[in-house]
Amino acid sequence: MTTTLLYDGSFNGLMTAIFMIYDHKIKWPIIAPASREQQNLFEGNQEVITDVEKAQRVWKGFKTLSGHRDAHQVYCAFLSEIIGVENTIFDYLKMTFSHQRSPSGDYANPTVLKISQAAKMVGREKHRMEAFVRFHLIEEDVYYANVEPDFNVLPLIAKHFKNRYADQKWIIYDLKRDFGISYDLESVHEVQIDFRNPRGQRGILNTTVPDQSEALVESGSFRESEIQYRDLWNQYFKSTNIKSRKNMRLHVQHVPRRYWKYLSEKV
Question: How many angstroms separate the CA atoms of 155 and 142, rounded?
Fold first, then answer.
């Protein structure tokens, strides 16, 4: 009988589920996030309680056999959040443990190909986020940015922004997944914000709404210097834009429309 292991959606939770499969000698496992639980009369559901120690035993064992690059690729595949990716990762780890080496590079193997493709998609989204994040200065000298990436790339971009903006406090918030990363001049932490913006979408500082910029200045949400800086940036962007060389198709290819609402130069 198939056993469905329901985990909490975290990477440590997934590794704990894989530990349980080996520890309990489960022959026909399916791993799924508890949030996607579906009742099936022919399947037995089993809850996975995340255990960091057990998770690290699995992950360290895999990294020893595969190496850092391959392990990073598997982690990126996990961040893709593709339905069923947990079972693809389990198959990949199972092959590694069975043969005592990683199957990396064997693209004729459908599991290896799926991991590689998912990791590449996540990698592209990571680079886009690093390029398209736009911060706004809010009260208490904290810079804030909203994002809605296709994949869960916040864990991957934290190091980039910590190094690039090491001298300022900032928050990057993923509206789609309702969590963010915050830097306090020393370290990066995961945060959740309980807020409702009465104007436009939840949490979006929508400067396209008439007079909202002025209202944000008066309320302290935007500093006046931030408004001035944004206006100067927009003027610079417009002055360097050569209309005769405008190629909208190429522009959209490099800067997809879904990112435009967060770019100051598109206001």
Answer: 20
Measured CA to CA, the distance from residue 99 to residue 103 in angstroms comes to 8
Q: What's the pTM?
A: 0.76
Number of H helices, E strands in the chain: 9, 8
Residue 100 Ramachandran class (φ > 0 left, ψ -120 to 50 alpha, else beta): left
**Is beta strand 2-7 parallel, antiparallel or unpaired with respect to 29-33?**
parallel
Backbone dihedral angles phi then psi of residue 8, each to the nearest 5 degrees:
-85, 5
SS3 173: strand
Pairing of strands 169-174, 142-147: parallel
- Can you tell me whether residue 171 is helix, strand or coil? strand
pLDDT tens-place string over residues 200-227 = 444 444 333 333 333 333 344 444 544 4
Please state, in angstroms and rounded to a whole number, the distance separating the CA atoms of residues 39 and 251.
46
Greatest alpha-carbon span in the chain: 67
- Asked if 134 and 205 touch (Cβ cutoff 8 Å), the reply is no
Domain boundaries, the chain: 2-125, 133-266
More confident residue, 188 or 248: 188
Phi-psi region of 84 (alpha: psi -120 to 50; beta: other; left: phi over 0): left
